[in-house]
Automatic annotation (TrEMBL):
Name this protein carries in UniProt: Fibrinogen C-terminal domain-containing protein
N-terminal signal peptide: 1-18
Domain Fibrinogen C-terminal: 166-387
Transmembrane helix in keyword set: no
Function: Lectin involved in innate immunity. Agglutinates all types of human erythrocytes, Gram-positive and Gram-negative bacteria. Has a stronger agglutinating activity towards Gram-negative bacteria than towards Gram-positive bacteria. Specifically recognizes acetyl group-containing substances on agglutinated cells. The hemagglutinating activity was inhibited by EDTA, acetyl group-containing mono- and disaccharides, N-acetyl derivatives of amino acids, other acetyl group-containing substances, propionamide and benzamide.
Amino acid sequence: MLIYYLFIILLSSSFCATDEKIHDANEPDNGPFNFKFTKLIDIRLGGKNFNNVNDIIQSNINEAIGVDNSKKQSPEMYLVNEQHEEQNVRAERSCNTDQNLIINRLDSITGKLQNIQNVCQKSNCESQTVSNIGINSEFCDRLVGLSKLQYCDFFEEKYSKNYSNATKSNIPKSCKEIQENGQNKSGMYQIQSKSSFKPIFVLCDMETKDGGWTVVQKRFDGSENFVREWRDYKFGFGDLKREFWLGLENIYNIVGFEANELLVEITDRDKIKAYAHYKSFGIGPETDGYPLNLLNGFSGDAGDSLGYHSGAKFSTKDMDQDTVPGNCAETYLSGWWYKSCHKSNLNGNYINLALPEQYKFKGLHWEGFRGHEYCHSGSRMLVRPSTPK
């Protein structure tokens, strides 16, 4: 596992950056090796071991990346073999480094890493590494998505609380279920929605508006950078004890298959809070662009500044899915359900002060509370099942 992830990190960091948009797995003709390899990485990062994926999904991915289902060939081996055939395609991209040299170098590095692992007693080495950089189960549990991957995925099975002993049947599906089981204290808990391949740690709010909420976004001090690309917003980032975005894929798994409600909490620069409550909330899958496809039943004193975005696909600076020329996400410095462009932007740049003219509309905005130009000092987005489990 350690060797695999080091190889993935090294290999993915070595490929040339391109202007190519991210495509879904149903569009095999729109991208060569990099696209195919990216989708395989996404499966791994999402905690879905390819060999254990549903047969239909496995077959669809095989078809999307060109693997012959009649042959006993893993997608990993197929992609490795295909590297050499795709050299000309990748060489055509704007890259100043010889790809063959990179691959040869990575092969050498991978071999050296394998030798290190063979010599090293795995448990002792991992234990020493964890100790040296201060990683423990509590530290790893609170990190979200790609922030966790940087430090903790090498040791997840060994150090993540209750992961190896828990089964899907006895892990709560939501913070609401945890509350119904008698836990009334806000904090970090482990949940696993019906569609998730593995459990995740989330922040549960058990006090606000009768509690039982799963917090999917939290901002209050600007400590986390929200000017990020598609994969960050897909898998999530940040720290559950500080600022974070839970990740579109996690949010979709939580709200995409059963009725949920949404609570938005806005905090202005005088620490006054306002709320927007939606009785129904849901987003679609990545193949559709994670659209805000269900939003109704508004109430609250913050104004309905999300309703304008209903039906919009999610956009980031490298994945433009808004409805206007140009890129709203690049202009307004965040990932959001942009249309033309926004009346709310809770992932906008954190600027906790009045803005000069050139920076207006680029902060943390919610038009219905203090106006469109006002930059707020904090926000939270919380979801909860709207029907009893």
